[in-house]
Amino acid sequence: MAATETALRFDPLTEKDRQRIARFVESNIGVQCPASKHSLVESRLRKRQKALGFSTLKHYIDFALEAKEGEQERIHLLDTLTTNKTDFYREIEHFHFLRRSLEARLAASHSRAAVRFWSAGCSTGQEPYTLAMEILEMQQRFSHFRAEILATDISVSCLQTAKRAIYPHETVEPVPLAVRKKYLLRSNKSGRDLVQMDAPVRKLVQFQTLNLLHDDFRKNGAFDYIFCRNVMIYFSNSDRESIIKRFAASLNPGGILFIGHSENLVGNKLEFSRVQPTVYQRS
Questions:
Q1: In 10 A of CB 101, how many CB atoms?
Q2: Alpha-carbon distances of 199 from 103, 144, 168, 204, rounded to whole Å
Q3: Helix (H/G/I), strand (E/B), else coil: 235
Q4: Crossing angle for the helix pair 71-80 and 38-52, nearest 10 degrees?
Q5: How far apart are CA 200 and CA 184, in angstroms?
Q6: CB-based contact 118:219 (threshold 8 Å)
Q7: Residue 250 and residue 223: Cα distance in Å, rounded?
């Protein structure tokens, strides 16, 4: 076992091994690791080599990709190579649009049926918790408003962080002060300045491990709003097109898809109409 190999060597990542890693990652989660990301892949895998005590990077890669005992490590490898940047109220124009959309919907109908949201690629939870705070604010004006939020990600470690719902205080600066006072609790555990989402916020969100490339979306039913932002930029055009087609099938008629500001719908324009930049309505 690797833990006995204590003399670490900093052997470079070979192009052959980068290609092995790239094939494994793309076939499992659709994320591409082109040659331009050689240094990034090497630096992230080096951390796993050190953490597990493998003497060389190549030994670590062989273990993770080939060994029967490396099955669990393959999950960590995918975690390590997944970019998980997220923020509260990221791309705030989307939340401005959401408020207008919900206000119009709730004013027009007093149905108590739950409006369903999906945060696809939720990372460490900031997006679905932002949605939850927006929903709680809206419920103060529309008492009949019911909502459900499904938050999914491929990364087990990200979902663990999301479920804890504890964040460094400086990361909640984008949250309006009045909203912070209602829904965030201050904590000073271990001398760190932290905040935790309050129980009503956490109660609105259900987390689930989901692979956008391979898992069946239909098991989670239909949604009214899907947020999948800055996730599909890591997929090939063909995978992106397939995922967007399945998003369309998962949206109720008139449902809304939000994508990242650097993304587009490639070949799926027939299934959606554009209502503003990076916001699309199912046709």
A1: 17
A2: 25, 20, 18, 9
A3: strand
A4: 140
A5: 10
A6: no
A7: 6
Which tokens hold the place of 169? 């205080």
Cβ contacts of 94 within 8 Å, gap of 6 or more: 227, 229, 258, 278, 279
Query: At residue 7, what are phi and psi to the nearest 5 degrees?
Result: -85, 95
Copy the structure tokens of residue 8: 């670490």
* Nearest-angstrom CA–CA distance, 2 and 144: 57
Dmax over CA atoms of the chain, in Å, equals: 68
Nearest to 214 by CA among 30, 75, 72: 30
Q: Which amino acid is at 81?
A: L
Contact 247, 119 (CB under 8 A): no
The residue with tokens 């190999």 is 5
CA distance 226 to 33: 26
Structure tokens at 171: 């990361």
User: In this structure, what token pair is assigned to residue 121?
Assistant: 């690629």
Instruction: Please list the pLDDT of the chain residue by residue as tens digits (283 residues).
Output: 454 446 888 999 999 999 999 999 999 888 889 999 999 999 999 999 999 999 999 999 999 999 999 998 998 898 888 877 789 999 999 999 999 999 999 999 999 999 999 999 999 999 999 999 999 999 999 999 999 999 999 988 899 999 999 999 999 999 999 999 999 998 777 778 899 999 999 999 999 999 999 999 999 999 999 999 989 888 888 999 999 999 999 999 999 999 998 888 866 667 899 999 999 999 8
Q: Is the pTM of this model over 0.70?
A: yes
Q: Which tokens is 278 given?
A: 């990076």
